[in-house]
């Protein structure tokens, strides 16, 4: 499948994310001839085990569940401390609910618009808690459609991001998008890109957003 980078917006010191920045970023996409194609949405849910009386040992653990728009029939489970990522059928969420083995602590939605730009597909979106308009962050997916090898696509992706950064600089926005590539090898993932790579990137972005919020407090 095509390779993608998932980036998060890093506000400048003393500034925060707001809806005006989202508007400006979408204008940047359109200024470099991005064609709007429609809406998209991904969701991350934090799950916590429901420990019953008499349960011993250190398992089960908290984990992240991730729903991706390009794989509507799949669900991705990540236990970050153990570097485990699993792909499951989307019905796993119903099974967990019926077994009452885990409960949802909080869900975050990543949602916005999708754009086509030559061989690239861009998704720009807000990060919002479920059933809330309290903006927690901004993310961008950059997908390069012709190539699935991360190493082969790296130079092209870096060149695209240079063009993107120049376009953002022209608008003097109070921040920039950051790409922090996880160590996919730690999760048992190779050079050929899969949806599990995307799930791991979203988990890493989530950790960065939490760190940014905590750093401001």
UniProtKB/TrEMBL annotation:
GO terms for molecular function: transcription coactivator activity. GO terms for cellular component: mediator complex. The keyword Transcription regulation applies. It is found in: Nucleus. GO terms for biological process: regulation of transcription by RNA polymerase II. InterPro entries: Mediator_Med20 (IPR013921). Keywords: Activator, Nucleus, Transcription, Transcription regulation. Its main location: nucleus. It comes from the Eukaryota. Belongs to the Mediator complex subunit 20 family. Component of the Mediator complex, a coactivator involved in the regulated transcription of nearly all RNA polymerase II-dependent genes. Mediator functions as a bridge to convey information from gene-specific regulatory proteins to the basal RNA polymerase II transcription machinery. Mediator is recruited to promoters by direct interactions with regulatory proteins and serves as a scaffold for the assembly of a functional preinitiation complex with RNA polymerase II and the general transcription factors. This is Mediator of RNA polymerase II transcription subunit 20. It comes from Rosa chinensis (China rose).
